[in-house]
Amino acid sequence: MRHLPALTVDELTRELGSRTRAVEALKWLYAQKTLPQELPDTVPGVSHRAWRPFIEARKWSLPKVLERQQSPDGTTKYALDFDGTNVETVRIPAKGRSTICISSQAGCTRRCTFCATKELGFIRQLKAEEMIGQYLHARNEAPEHQPATNVVFMGMGEPMDNLDEVLRAVECLTQSPAPQLRHVGVTVSTSGVLPGLKRFLAESKASLALSLNATTDEVRQQVMPQTRTWPIASLLDALREDAARRNNKRDYFIEYVLFGDLNDTDEDADRLVQLLDGIPSRVNLIPYNPYPGTGLKTPTEERVNKFHERAVKQGLLTLVRWPRGREIAAACGQLVLSKDGAGFTPGISVGA
Prior knowledge:
This protein has two domains: about 1-60, no CATH class; about 65-330, TIM Barrel (Alpha-Beta Barrel), CATH 3.20.20.70. The chain has ten helices and twelve strands. The longest helix is centred in the middle third of the chain and has 14 residues, at about 130-140. The strands form two sheets. A ten-stranded mixed β-sheet has the order 1-2-3-4-7-8-9-10-11-12, with helices on one face. A two-stranded antiparallel sheet has the order 5-6. By secondary structure, it is an alpha/beta fold.
């Protein structure tokens, strides 16, 4: 049974008997700076007669913070426990705002070579309530001068493998009177699961991030072994079709992890420009954040800058995403928790 954070206004209206009560209940939830461990007996604007049966029929389950770590740049990583299932969430500060990076699964099935989450295997799907719970916890710890304005589904897991729950979480996070996040401020990532990607593009207004990471299928399959089913061309064609259908009114982000001597050549930069022709995209170049045993290398800063400059000169909107939170293993590809539930995995704090 759905609980308060993952109910739409229409669903809550049916539960509480009026739209006014539904709106007041959601306003109350998102106004809480410290989330209660139990729902109160009364909520302002909602009659006791309507509220009491609602809370009695549902278990109010909030994540417990097992551990938090903060890097010198202010990036904060949280190990959260949802009824014995542990996930990681990251808050990334920027000038005047924060971005909350949430997980859609505990573990992951995709086994990308460069991603530490694969060490967990797949544990279970997360519910929309649990995704929103991650957001609420991290949002409440954001300082006033850096409010949470953006959410990215780029934590543990492949969002397209849990799309029903992800779509519900996006809908609830962007509905009024929720935190009033704009659709453009919510980004859902994918490693390239084409059926899910197409459904997401058809059903959601949120932004999309495609983890591309190579300019040839051969190299892409080397670093992302489970992507061979859907070649690069089929994924990019889906973006072009969506852009044409929506008259370029969606943000498309192309995530490109740079690996030393693998996908960081001048030829790769040229191919990337050609591949993205006709797609109104922004490319995030992400220098590989290493962890032991992958055999992959981080490119030199000089090589990263050369790749970036070459792409920009050819008209590709490109930004280098230098690591945030690497000291606490909160950077891209570093999220992994210990299987015994003891918190963050020892030995994965990378500066290595």
